[in-house]
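Predict fold of Lacto-N-biosidase; 330 aa.
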Amino acid sequence: MERGLLLDVGRKFWSIDEIKQLIELLSKTGLTHLQLHLSENEAFRLNLEAVSTDRMSSVNDRTYSYDDIQEILKFAHRYKIQVIPDIDAPGHLRALLRNRPEFALPATEGCALDVTNPLACEWFLSIIRECCEWFSECNIFHVGGDEFIDFRRMEAYPYLLSKSHEYYGEKASGLEFYVDFVNHIAQYLSLKGKKVRVWNDGFLRKDLESLSVLTKDVEVCYWTNWDVNMALVGDWLRAGYRLVNFCDNDLYYVLGENAGYNYPSVEKLIKFADRNKFSGEQILTNEEMKSVSGTYFSVWADKAEAKSVSEILIDLAELLPIFVKKYGEV
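Predicted 3D structure, encoded as tokens:
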């Protein structure tokens, strides 16, 4: 079973040497995977040709080159750590859409891709194509899918709703273009031999039933159920999806303790963390856990300057051994 760590470099840049230090720590403590969250509203960290030629040299001042990524991948391979590229879409894209405002979905403050626009979707697919070349040896690819819109307020997006009714019929909920976009990206990556992952919050909702259904070819990274209309873990299992546990209650290390999160501690992990527990105190049976591919600890950079990389590494050196012990094989 996978034991991994997500690192948000989209909002807090880590140098190659700093990422190498992290990889050494992961290997030393027995983790297996490093998920690099490379895109956020604040920055897009890959200096892709599809981006660098897109009206400016770069969308932010600190990026990784192709050679940088190959150096990281080679180093990770040496330490037996598998890298998962994480390119979040169709939300969290303000950094990229800043130079392509015509591809932004109305009423989203330039943060979300207009999934109703075939040109916008093809433009983003060109980015995914190039990412596949950069990460050709990586077997898993995370495509996000979270927080595309405020799913509780579909009426706040009349353009999306109107387009959905026009294309899918009056019974459309407004999620159809979104689901089809994710399915299209997932299909492309699957044909490239990648295992594809998405976040849980926008799909299989209780308040909005999409006429389009999320493909079973993805694994669902279950991070939260803060909204009562989000599907429970059991709903996903009954629908036949495989899951990955990103329990935000215990395993989210959020810089600045933003959004109501508190830093994990050794004491909290020992007392509260449990291999079978998902967000919202949802406990799976050992039989249900057979549909879970692994568990991940996450370092999110909501307030990037709240801690230095050195401070984060010191904290992780204390926390990750407990994480591995609590989430190891039965």
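Confidence is low (pLDDT under 50) at residues 55-59.
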